Amino acid sequence: MSSAGTIDRPTTRDPQRPLPKPGPTMTADSDIPNHSGSEANTSPQNRTRQMQLMPESLARAHMNHRLHEAESERRALRVTSARRLQRRAERASLRARRALAMAVMQ
């Protein structure tokens, strides 16, 4: 089986046959760079798992952002209602002061 395989049916190596001798186009072992970073230790299975978990982490980050946004909106509503109540209390205080002044004057 000396013909090259196709994409649908790639050629497989027979374990009974010896490996081919390196030709002049093949590189020696010393020419291959030694990868010692974290990418070298990551297996393809872990990479595919990380790729599958990416939408989940993206959804988690999106929900976290929406939670923070909702919390800040609730805080803003609390501040506006507190200001409204403060203005109402100030108006009631002015009315009471005027009523007291009117009662004292009579």
Q: Globular, elongated, flat, extended or rod-shaped: what is the shape?
A: rod-shaped
- The SS-based structural class is mainly alpha
Tally of DSSP β-strands: 0
Oligomer kind: single chain
In percent, how helical is the residue content? 55-70%
Task: Sketch the topology as an H/E string, one letter per element.
Answer: HH
Approximately what portion of the residues adopt beta-strand conformation? under 5%
Distance between the first and last residues' Cα: 120 Å
Rg value: 38 Å
Strand count, sense and closure of the main sheet?
Answer: none
Would you tell me the overall average pLDDT? 80
**Unreliable stretches, pLDDT < 50, 5 or more residues?**
none
User: With helices defined by DSSP (H or I, 4 residues minimum), what is the helix count?
Assistant: 2
Q: Could you describe the 3D structure shown?
A:
By secondary structure, the protein is mainly α. It is 62% helix and 0% strand. It has helices at 38-41, 44-105. The radius of gyration is 38 Å and the shape is rod-shaped. The model has no long low-confidence stretch (mean pLDDT 80).
Summarize the model shown.
The protein is mainly α and 106 residues long. The protein is built from two helices and no strands.
